[in-house]
Amino acid sequence: MAANRGDELPLFLSYATFANVVRQQYIRQWHAPMHALYASYADALTALLDRAVASSTSVGPLQRHIKAVATDVVASLGREMEKTLQEALAMEGRPYTVNSDVVAAFQTQRSTPLLSALDALAAETDDGRVSMGAVKALVQLHAMTHESLDDLQARDLLWALQAYLQVAAKRFSDKIPMLLQARFLAPFMTELRHRLATTEATDAVLERLLRDGNATARAELSAKLLALQQAKAEMHAIV
What we know:
mainly alpha, Dynamin_stalk, GED domain-containing protein, GED_dom
C-alpha cells in the first residue's frame, strides 16, 4: 500500500491503490464469465439458425447460401462485439459511480463495529440503559485506536471495496446482456434481412442458385428414376 500511495498523505484512502486493487483482483476475473456469456449467445444463435434453415422448404443450394450468409453476418458482428466487450471491461478498470449507495454502504460498515459494541453494552443491563460515561468510554475506545495507519487504511480499503463492488458488479452484470442484445442479437436479424434482400439477391446470385438448384433437382430425379427402373426390373425377374 505504501508503494502505491507514494508521497500522498497517509491519512486518506489512496484512490490509486483502490483502483489498482479493483483492476487486478476483481475486473480481471470478470473477463472469463463475460466471454463465456457471449459464447453462449453465439452458440444459441448458430443452433437456432441451423434449425431454421433445415426446417425450411428451400432447395439445398438455397439453404446452403442462406446459412453461409448468416454465418458471415455472425462472424462480422462477433468481431465488433469482441471490441465492445473489451471496451466495457476497460471502462470498469477506472472505478467510478454516481450511485450514493456506495457511500451509504461504506459508512454502514464503518459504523457497524461501534454499533455492535453499543448493543452489547446495552444488553448487559436489565433495562437496556447505560451511563453516558460508559458510552463515552466505548466511543473513545473505538476512536482512539492503536492500530497503525497501514492497518487502518487496509480496513478502510476492504470496506470501500465491498461497498463499491456491490454496485459495480450489479451494473456490469446488467450491462453485458444489454450490450449483447443491442449490439449482437438485434443487428443480426436486421443485417441478415438486408443482405438477403440486396447484395446477396442480385441477378447473378439468383441465377447461380437457380442453376445449382436445377442441377440438384435433376440429380435427385435421376436417382429416383434409376431406383424405379431397378425395382421394375426386379419385379419382372420375379414374375
